[in-house]
């Protein structure tokens, strides 16, 4: 049994400013920051990494006053939103927050780019410090394997209270174009596999190498993504000097007590320059049979997974439009209540990868991608998120992302291919999607 000591202090500071003020001394960094909702977790340092959360218990307290230990073992697995011992989580009793960043295809033997390959294979990572902004308030959480020393908490508290307003930095860069001829050949292979009946849909990706005019930090890109016009959830995972980050619109799964939400997101058109243009593009997207078919594969898979491990499943029959800064998508929200005993990690594994990022059937599409794509995607399109000590949390699909080391990086984007897809149009669609991660370089 691993015992974790968690101390939570309510704070007033802006969590992003606090993160920027504290981050310098920490090479391990973790961010899950929903730009639209108070679901913001920013972790620094690594207290412990665990393969599973079943053998964990924690003592949580406000300041130095720890409460009686909670048996986290069951709590992480329980289908209830209450603390593991059945007591409701009160006030500042914010459970410890574990981060989890998972690769798109963890068993793909092909090499990832050199930056992505440098990350360790760890499952659940508990930071030493987590800055939290959620429906309970804003907190500074300090996690430890021994009782938390009050002086240490006080020092972090002072730094958080004195955090200056963050500053944005624009970073000039160039992108090395990827080969159009290689893309055309990949499209041909994908369309041949579809024509042969091997898959109905496959989601091909492109990656581009980026070189910056001067060194940049993970903080620079994080601040630009959070304060810029990209919509969605900002993700960051830094290990030593290398970091993976981006801003994704795609929720994979959210669990709060027995309430589960997911999102079917597939089918794309440009955002449009004016409201009128954007509405016309959205109407055409809704009416387009090819995009509706691409979308339906995702709806069917997510509904069937939820119908197996949940009840009260609600997935509307007609999609809506999600309008983002650079593109618009067809999107269908999904809601359900989870069967007792099914954990958030179980849900994540059952749902991921969806046909939105792999194809249909999923296993066949993954195998096809291993042979068509010349690289391993690493965390791109993987399931990335957090789980707290009550077993609640969420995972997003790591789209609109890249991996960087301070002077260069790799950016990734993909799109769904079905019968009749056109190589030039799909290439351009990925170009639009790449703009989101590239916007991290503009202040
Ligand atoms: C694969 C990506 O996006 C996915 C593919 C989409 C599509 O093919 O229309 C739309 C949204 C995402 O599910 C990406 O952004 O890289």
UniProtKB/TrEMBL annotation:
<keyword id="KW-0413">Isomerase</keyword>
<comment type="similarity">
    <text>Belongs to the isochorismate synthase family.</text>
</comment>
<dbReference type="InterPro" id="IPR015890">
    <property type="entry name" value="Chorismate_C"/>
</dbReference>
<dbReference type="InterPro" id="IPR005801">
    <property type="entry name" value="ADC_synthase"/>
</dbReference>
<protein>
    <recommendedName>
        <fullName>isochorismate synthase</fullName>
        <ecNumber>5.4.4.2</ecNumber>
    </recommendedName>
</protein>
<feature type="domain" description="Chorismate-utilising enzyme C-terminal">
    <location>
        <begin position="180"/>
        <end position="433"/>
    </location>
</feature>
<dbReference type="InterPro" id="IPR004561">
    <property type="entry name" value="IsoChor_synthase"/>
</dbReference>
<dbReference type="GO" id="GO:0008909">
    <property type="term" value="F:isochorismate synthase activity"/>
</dbReference>
<dbReference type="InterPro" id="IPR019999">
    <property type="entry name" value="Anth_synth_I-like"/>
</dbReference>
<dbReference type="Pfam" id="PF00425">
    <property type="entry name" value="Chorismate_bind"/>
</dbReference>
């Amino acid at each position: 049994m691993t015992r974790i000591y968690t101390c939570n202090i309510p704070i007033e500071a802006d969590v992003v400013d606090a993160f920027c003020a504290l981050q310098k001394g920490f090479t391990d960094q973790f961010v899950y920051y929903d730009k639209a909702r108070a679901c913001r977790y920013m972790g620094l340092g690594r207290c412990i990494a665990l393969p599973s959360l079943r053998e964990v218990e924690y003592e949580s307290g406000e300041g130095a006053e720890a409460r009686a230990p909670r048996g986290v073992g069951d709590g992480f697995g329980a289908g209830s939103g209450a603390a593991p011992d059945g007591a409701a989580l009160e006030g500042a009793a914010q459970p410890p927050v574990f981060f989890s960043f998972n690769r798109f295809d963890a068993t793909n033997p092909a090499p990832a780019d050199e930056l992505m390959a440098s990350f360790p294979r760890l499952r659940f990572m508990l930071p030493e410090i987590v800055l939290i902004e959620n429906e309970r308030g804003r907190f500074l959480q300090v996690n430890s394997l021994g009782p938390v020393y009050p002086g240490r908490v006080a020092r972090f508290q002072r730094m958080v209270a004195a955090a200056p307003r963050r500053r944005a930095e624009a970073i000039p860069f160039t992108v090395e174009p990827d080969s159009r001829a290689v893309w055309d050949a990949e499209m041909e292979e994908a369309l041949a596999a579809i024509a042969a009946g091997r898959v109905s849909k496959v989601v091909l990706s492109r990656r581009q190498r980026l070189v910056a005019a001067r060194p940049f930090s993970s903080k620079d890109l994080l601040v630009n993504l959070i304060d810029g016009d990209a919509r969605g959830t900002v993700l960051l995972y830094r290990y030593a000097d290398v970091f993976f980050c981006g801003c994704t619109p795609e929720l994979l799964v959210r669990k709060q007590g027995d309430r589960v939400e997911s999102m079917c997101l597939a089918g794309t058109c440009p955002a449009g320059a004016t409201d009128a243009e954007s509405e016309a593009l959205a109407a055409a997207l809704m009416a387009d049979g090819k995009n509706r078919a691409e979308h339906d594969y995702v709806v069917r898979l997510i509904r069937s997974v939820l119908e197996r491990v949940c009840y009260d499943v609600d997935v509307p029959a007609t999609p809506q439009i999600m309008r983002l800064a650079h593109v618009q998508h067809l999107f269908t929200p999904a809601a359900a209540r989870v069967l007792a005993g099914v954990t958030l990690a179980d849900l994540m594994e059952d749902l991921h990868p969806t046909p939105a990022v792999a194809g249909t059937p999923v296993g066949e599409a993954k195998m096809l991608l291993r042979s068509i794509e010349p690289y391993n995607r690493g965390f791109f399109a993987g399931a990335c998120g957090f789980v707290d000590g009550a077993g609640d949390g969420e995972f997003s699909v790591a789209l609109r992302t890249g991996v960087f080391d301070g002077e260069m990086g790799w950016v990734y984007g993909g799109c769904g291919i079905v019968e009749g897809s056109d190589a030039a149009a799909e290439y351009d669609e990925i170009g639009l999607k790449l703009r989101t991660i590239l916007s991290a370089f503009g202040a």
